[in-house]
Amino acid sequence: MCMQSRRRNEEPFLERESERELIIVIVILAQRQASLNMLRVRWLFLGLDLRALLFLCLVIPSGIVGIYLHGQKITYFLRPLWESPPKPFITLTHYYHENVSMETLCRLHGWGVRDFPRRVYDAVLFSNEVDMLKIRWNEMYPYISQFVLLEANSTFTALPKPLNFALNRDKFKFVEPRLTYGMIGGRFRKGENPFVEEAYQRLALDQLLRIAGIEDDDLLVMSDVDEIPSRHTIDLLRWCDDIPPVLHLQLKNYLYSFEFLYDLRSWRASVHRYQRGKTRYAHYRQTDYLLADSGWHCSFCFRYISDFIFKMKAYSHTDRVRFSHYLSPKRIQEVICKGADLYDMIPEEYTFRDIIGKMGPIPHSHSAVHLPSFLLENADEYKYLLPGNCIRESG
Q1: Of the residues 26, 191, 353, 376, which has the maximum number of CB atoms within 10 A of its CB?
Q2: How far apart are CA 333 and CA 390, in angstroms?
Q3: How many C-beta atoms lie closer than 10 Å to residue 139's C-beta?
C-alpha cells in the first residue's frame, strides 16, 4: 500500500520534470536557429561589396521617395511610349482685315455671303471668373443675339460655392436685355468623378438654351468663360454661308495673363450651326475642322490669389493638387511671376520633342498687340492681365 501511494505521488513530479526538459530543449533549439539566421545575414553582408551596400541602403530608399514625389512627372514624360497623338485637325486659313468687305472675306474662305446674318447664342457655365466674363461679353457684344449663362451652387468637385454671377449681376447691366440666366442646384456627391458633375451641368445648359429660344441654323458658341472668340471671328461666321456645321476655334493659349503666351494649340472652343435634337453642349473634340487664329484662351487669369486657390480645389483636375503646399499663397505668387506650372507638372504632350521644348517657365512677352479691345480700353482696371504686372491681390 505504501509503495503504491509513493508511486502515485512521484508520477506528477516526473511529468513536471519532463515538461521542464522539453521547454529547455525548445529554447535551446530556438537560440540555435536565431544564431544560424544571424550567421546567414553575416554571410550575406560579407558577400557584398561597398557599392552593393550603398545601393541597398541609399539608392533603393531614394528611388522609392523619388517615385512618391515625382511619379506623376515620370508618367507624363514617358507618355509618348504608350499613347499616340490624336488625329491632326484640318486647319482652315483665317482671313481678316478691317478694311476688307465681308463679301470678300467669305469668298476668301471658300464660302458664300448671306443676305442677312444668322442669330448667335453664346452659352457658358460660370464659376467665379467675373473679370474674364466682362472682357468676353464686351468683346462679343455687337454680334451676340442672346447671352446664356448657367451657374451652380457647387463646384464640379462637390464643394459649395456662392452664386458669383448673381452677386455681381450689376456689373453686367449692358447685356440684361439679351440675357438668359439660370441657376442649378449641385448634387454634392463626395468622391464622385468630377467630370460626372460637369456633364450634369452641361446637360442643364442644353435645356436653358431651349428656354432662351435657340432655333435650327442659329449659331451656338460653346466655350469656357476664359476661351474668348474674337469679335471679327463671330461676325465672319454669322455672315458667311456654307460654313461647316461644327467648327473648332484655334485660340492663342495664355497662362495667368496676356504676358505668358504658352502656345497656339487651344482648340476646345467651338461654333455650331444648331440642330434641335442633335446639338449637345460639350467641351471635347466634335469635328476635324479648326479655324486658325480665332481668339484668346487666358487660363488661370485671376485678379486675386484666393481665386487661384479656389479653382485649384474646385475644377475637374483637382487630383493635380498632390501636396498641400501647392496651395500656399506665397508659392502661387512666385509661380505666377515666373510663368511656371502651378502643379509642377511635365507638359501634356505626345512627343519627346514637344515635352522637352515646353519644359520650364513660359518666356515673358512684351507684346499687347491684337488683344480684346475692351481690355486695352480699360487697361488701368485690368492692369494685372497685361505684360509686366504679375503681382496679384490677396483677395
Answers
A1: 376
A2: 8
A3: 22
Higher pLDDT, 186 or 290: 290
Q: Would you give the DSSP letter of residue 172?
A: G
Grid coordinates representing 160 are: 459649395
Q: How far is CA 29 from the centre of its chain?
A: 63
Q: For residue 240, count other CB atoms closer than 10 A to its CB.
A: 21
CA distance 377 to 375: 6
Alpha carbons 42 and 281: distance in angstroms, whole number: 69
Q: What was the pLDDT predicted at 301?
A: 98
171: left (phi over 0), alpha (psi -120 to 50) or beta: alpha
pLDDT (0 to 100) of residue 27: 47
Residue 287: all three cell numbers together: 469635328
Q: What is the pLDDT of residue 25?
A: 47
CA pair distance 114, 264, nearest whole angstrom? 30
Which secondary structure element, helix H or strand E, spans residue 69, and what is its range?
A: helix 60-77
Regarding pTM above 0.85, the answer is: no
What is the distance between the alpha carbons of residues 112 and 108, in angstroms, rounded to a whole number? 9
Position 317 pLDDT exceeds 80:
no
